[in-house]
Amino acid sequence: MSSKTVNQNAWWLVLPVFIMVAFNALIPLMTVVNYSVQESFGNNEFFWSGTIWFEQLLEDDQFRSSLLRQISFTSIVLFIQVPLGLGIALCMPRKGPWVSVCLVLMALPLLVPWNVVGSMWNIMALPDIGLLGKGLNALGIPFNYTRQPISAWFTVVLMDVWHWTSLVVLLCYAGLVSIPDAYYQAAKVDGAKPWAVFRFIQLPKLKHVLTIAILLRFMDSFMIYTEVIVLTGGGPGSATKFLSIDLVQKALGGFDLGPAAAMSIVYFLIILLTSWLFYTLMMRNEAQ
Amino acid sequence: MTKRSLVPIVYIIFLMLPIYWLLNMSFKTTNEILGGFTAFPHQFTLDSYHTILTDPTWYMAYVHSLIYVCLNTVFSLAVALPAAYAFSRYRFLGDKHLFFWLLSNRMAPPAVFVLPFVQLYSAVGLFDTHIAVALAHTLFNIPLAVWILEGFMSGVPKELDETAYVDGYSFPHFFFRIFIPTVSAGIGVAAFFCFMFSWVEMLLAKNLTSVAAKPIVAAMTKTASASGYELGLLAAAGVLTLIPGAIVVYFVRNYIAKGFALGRV
Question: 20 to 30 A Cα–Cα from A67, which one of A94, A149, A186, B119?
Answer without folding.
Answer: B119
